[in-house]
Amino acid sequence: MTWFLFCYWYERDAQRDPVGLVRIWALANVLTDVGDRVTLFPPWYRSARAQRTCTIIPIPLLHLPLIRPLSYACLSFVRGLTQALIIRPDIVYYRWMDSPHALILAKLLRVPCVCEVNGEPVPQWPGNQRKFVPWFKQLLARVALKRCDRIVVLTEGLRTLLQERYEVPLERIAVLPSGTDVQRFTARDAVASRLELGLLPNRLYVGFVGSFYRYQGLACLLDAMQLVKRVRPSAQLLLVGDGEVIEELKQQAKGMGFDDSVTWVGRVPYWEVPTWIGAMNVCVAPFRGDRGETSPVKLFDYLACHRPVIASAIPSVVSTFTPDSGVQLVQPDDPRPLADAILALLNDPGRCALLGRQGRRFVEERFSWTAIVEQLRQWVGEDLGVIRHADSHLL
User: Fold this and answer.
1) What is the pTM of this model?
2) Contact 188/275 with Cβ under 8 angstroms?
């Protein structure tokens, strides 16, 4: 099959290379590895200039408010149209980006269009947007999503949300969660990883990898670590990433007297992430209770590295991770159970090792990118050309 993949992602504090495109890069790479022809139209970030096996057509952006997404939509549409003169796609696949340009291109080319929805199409974040802006975005999403041939979502909750809020028939929605690269993310010796990274080899490290947004629950994690250190003073918090709340978190840590207890790593290249995970004793994902639907890549990456994971018991996490998945669930937004769970694992290396083995087996069987892409290909390809008449699937 021949694929055109469109994706736009922007983080104002990481214009050079935001992390939100990891999933689309993984799909492109694995689709190419299995023999499909893939052309990807990413924003012109550093990752778009790396040498890859698929065809990359970087799209320049005009870095101005409102103009930035419009510039991507218009330029990627034009480049997609001209590329179709060279090689005609069988499928146009795009990640929802408040723009139907990929859908319009697919309709012009008369090929099926698959839209991937990673979260609520129009997140209801508190802010000072004028009321007509979210209303217009909701209207745009409803019209576009109802006209896509297929929609891929990351969780069952998103599948239900699209049906109820946007009136999309369930039979056109498939659940295809995130995954991990089980070749890149593997077990590593903790001491060797720490020495490689310049960390203290004998410390106990509790770690987080990801973007620093409020919904990640990192403020609660700092509160929990204050409780942890009363019992295990040698415990160190390892925070890998950056984001909009970084200064708030640093001020919170400073007020706690945590200057020497938190390692602020900052953003690192994705290929370095397995080494940082390898340096951790326990990995955490302390999502806030109002996080909404999510299928975070980091949990699968943690597990692939044989590390025990503590995560908030929000609905999308509870529905994904089974009791034997290597993930221990705790109540969100409460530092006490989070601290208790961290201490229990720090005090029981045998339990950590068991959870690590369970987690690795869990992702190998169900959440490797190779397995996920194969399910996508089967689902899309089984009735290519008459895609509107397929039955419902849960992938």
Assistant:
1) 0.82
2) yes
